[in-house]
């Protein structure tokens, strides 16, 4: 039992909650309970105005992710081409719920862009990530996919799959950007009531 209750909108856990650092378990099979939970993930993502939400962010340690990423457009609203195969295939189907997603490979090319997170409200900071990834996943309401994904979709996939492995994006923020957001992060942590919580950074700290 997932024990998410009857509410459509779930509580998003915030920095300082240890559940955000739990490694999610594989989904063994898709049944009505998993489908209902997938719907709740999407509804919660929309209610919080996010483009992605991982199951761990609502306290459920399963490898499931909700996504709604639109393709890039110019000022006139026209889609900017060319799109990656993943964007071409998946963006028209949004919102999506990915079951047991994994990244098969990463591009060598890297790009730094600003990221935010529903679990770290109102804080944005630059994170360096590969420009594209090859995603392997089962769609909740569709077939398995193996797609080369670029653009914002690639970044969102990496961000959300980090959550499934117990990683929050601020752990990847480099100095001096990390030090700039640290006071705001500490404020969020204090609200969690977890006095023993420390942010375990995944990048080298400044000398």
Can you describe what's shown?
The chain has helices spanning 32-47, 85-90, 151-164, 177-192, and strands at 52-54, 64-67, 96-106, 110-117, 120-130, 133-139, 144-149. With 207 residues, it is an alpha+beta fold. The strands form two sheets. A five-stranded antiparallel sheet has the order 1-2-3-6-7. Strand 6 (133-139) and strand 7 form a beta hairpin. The longest helix has 16 residues, at 32-47. It is globular and about 45 Å long. The mean pLDDT is 95.
Number of strands: 7
Largest sheet: 5 strands, antiparallel
If strands are numbered along the chain, what order do they take across the biggest sheet?
Answer: 1-2-3-6-7
Distance between the termini: 48 Å
Structural class: alpha+beta
> For the CA atoms, what is the radius of gyration?
17 Å
The secondary-structure element order is HEEHEEEEEHH
How large a portion of the residues is in β-strands, by DSSP E?
Answer: 15-25%
Task: State mean pLDDT (0 to 100 scale).
Answer: 95
Total count of helical runs of at least 4 residues: 4
The dominant shape is globular
User: Spans with pLDDT under 50 lasting ≥5 residues?
Assistant: none
Helix content: 25-40%
């Amino acid at each position: 039992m997932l024990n998410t209750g009857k509410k459509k909108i779930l509580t998003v856990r915030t920095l300082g909650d240890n559940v955000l650092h739990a490694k999610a378990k594989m989904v063994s099979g898709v049944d009505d309970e998993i489908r209902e939970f997938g719907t709740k993930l999407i509804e919660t993502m929309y209610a919080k105005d996010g483009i992605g939400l991982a199951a761990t962010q609502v306290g459920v340690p399963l490898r499931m992710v909700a996504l709604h990423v639109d393709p890039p457009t110019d000022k006139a609203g026209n889609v900017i081409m060319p799109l990656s195969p993943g964007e071409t295939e998946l963006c028209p189907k949004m919102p999506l719920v990915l079951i047991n997603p994994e990244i098969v490979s990463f591009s060598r090319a890297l790009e730094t862009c600003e990221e935010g997170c529903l679990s770290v409200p109102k804080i944005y900071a630059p994170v360096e990530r590969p420009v594209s990834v090859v995603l392997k996943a089962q769609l909740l309401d569709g077939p398995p996919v193996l797609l080369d994904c670029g653009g914002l979709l690639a970044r969102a996939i990496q961000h959300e799959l980090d959550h499934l492995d117990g990683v929050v994006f601020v752990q990847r923020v480099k100095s001096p950007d990390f030090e700039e957001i640290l006071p705001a992060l500490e404020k969020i942590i204090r609200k969690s009531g977890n006095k023993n919580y420390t942010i375990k950074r995944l990048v080298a700290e400044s000398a």
